[in-house]
Amino acid sequence: MPSGIVYLVGAGPGDPGLITLRGVECLRQAEVVVYDYLANEYLLNHAPPAAERIYAGKIGGRHNQDQEEINRLLVAKGLEGRIVVRLKGGDPFVFGRGGEECEALASAGVAFEVVPGVTAAVGAAAYAGIPLTHRDFTASVAFVTGQEGRDKDETSIDWTRISLGSGTVVFYMGITALRRNMQLMIEHGRAPNTPVALVRWATTAGQQVLTGTLSDIADKAESAGFKPPAVTIVGEVVNLRKQLRWFDNRPLSGRRIIVTRAADQAGEFSAMLSGCGATVLECPTINLIEPASWEELDTAVGRLTEFNWLVLTSVNSVRFFFNRLDFLGLDARALGQCKVCAVGPKTAEAILARGIRPDLIPPDYKAESIVSEFAKQAVRGQRILFPRADRAREIIPRDLEQMGASVTSPVIYRNILPDRLCPETLLALEKRSVDCITFTSSSTALNMAEMLSTDLLANMLQGVAVASIGPVTSKTCRDLGLKVDIEPLEFTLAALLNSIQRYFSTAAR
Ligand code: SAH
């Protein structure tokens, strides 16, 4: 039997971007993933779909008995010869019981590796704008468990040293015992007006920060109903947050937004949204694939010089068209004197990147704008090659024909349903923890409705702001029974992002 291995991987504190490259590599190979409640569920997307996913939270909380069960599970899977990832919140060796898991593996003779992670104190400090050390304030920092002594009569923490020995002190698991811990620090000599910050769900869209002092933070936490998981940062450095806060005051901070574009296209828009503070839930509703047959397009390409115009209506059309030329052993020169029309600025950019300057750039994919641009071009008798997606509307080729042009419109890609919708996103919708969903084409909305059923879609999107890229998509949304809350005037991702920001700048939190 091949020997198994258990990777103890630090998932980081919450933001899925804070896992290490090595951690992602391990997840990509995983056959079994055993994960914690503190590990961001999105990281599971890095694991192969076939990997077994075991939620260790169901096995137990933080009790010894349950920990032993987890140890036994890891050992058993390792002995079965499986590649196991034990995905742990933060860093496996900082209050993560990773040491105990490794001891169990070592004594059973199961190979293991430890992949460090960004621990909660470090993540919370960075995302709250609180440098843990600073030349003007402190040269030392201590990480301390805030619940030590809960099951013991005597606490093993030397409170005098903790209170006075370290400039910055970060308590983990310290919310339930907050009042006692703050009191102990004061009793052991720390000034009652020392600044304190509580950082909950650090580095995630749900991050909450409460600031105060050793003497008043417990009252403040109580009246705010502040709950775990949170770290407590004590020290003068907390004051720097006033100036260094950057994460939780961005325009879309705290907002969870679904992007429904095809997986290979979502990246750009997701990055734009997260750059403004949103947490992006990617839920591809489209899978773009080659046409069932290339015959029609290949025939047209064979007579490319006979066409007066090539019209490409999206970045996808550009990609599929030029990839096909490439496959046929051709390049941009095959276009000869054929003029090129790029619909929308992004399409124009994609065409420019292929070394061709578009002759005509209608601003967007609306029949009126394309038709009115062509009206200026005297198209009567002109031959137009208009590659299209299989489900694209036929209006534009028809309108151009009515203007006297001869239009050939072969299918250049197909827009099919993905195998399934992202389960993590569906879970977030069920938990009502989503603020906004974005539809960047009619197909994204239609496909989602088809996969969920129209009724269920409308139901799941109650209370979720619907953002549509333009009037055509908005109409599709309305036909599906959705209320469109956000629609930009211009048909671009940048304009959509602006409208979303505007909407949330006035919306209640
Ligand atoms: N191994 C983890 C710590 C696990 S102990 C790490 O290195 O971060 C669990 C405690 O970690 C929680 O009680 C809380 O104090 C802290 N914690 C974990 N994730 C957190 C987060 N996103 N925000 C704030 N505190 C967090």
What does it look like?
It is built from 20 helices and 21 strands. The strands form 5 sheets. A 5-stranded parallel beta sheet has the order 3-2-4-1-5, sandwiched between helices. A 5-stranded mixed beta sheet has the order 6-7-10-8-9, sandwiched between helices. With 509 residues, the chain is α/β, with parallel strands linked by helices. Bound molecules: S-adenosyl-L-homocysteine. The site of S-adenosyl-L-homocysteine has 24 residues, from α5, β8 and β10.
Structure at a glance:
By secondary structure, this protein is an alpha/beta fold. Helices cover 37% and strands 18% of the residues. The strands form five sheets. A five-stranded parallel beta sheet has the order 3-2-4-1-5, with helices on both faces. A five-stranded mixed beta sheet has the order 6-7-10-8-9, with helices on both faces.
Tell me the CATH superfamily of the largest domain: Tetrapyrrole methylase, C-terminal domain
β-sheet strand percentage: 15-25%
Biggest sheet, strands in spatial order?
Answer: 3-2-4-1-5
Please count the beta strands (DSSP E, at least 2 residues each): 21
Count structural domains.
4
Secondary structure blueprint with pairings:
Elements: E1 5-10, H1 21-29, E2 32-35, E3 52-55, H2 56-59, H3 64-79, E4 83-88, H4 98-108, E5 111-115, H5 120-128, E6 141-145, H6 159-165, E7 168-172, H7 178-187, E8 195-200, E9 208-213, H8 217-224, E10 230-234, H9 241-244, E11 256-259, H10 263-275, E12 279-282, E13 287-289, H11 295-302, E14 309-312, H12 315-327, E15 339-342, H13 345-352, H14 367-375, E16 383-385, E17 388-389, H15 395-402, E18 406-408, E19 411-416, H16 423-430, E20 436-439, H17 442-452, H18 454-460, E21 465-468, H19 471-479, H20 493-506
Helix pairs in contact: 3-4, 12-13, 14-15, 17-18, 17-19
Bound molecules: S-adenosyl-L-homocysteine (SAH).
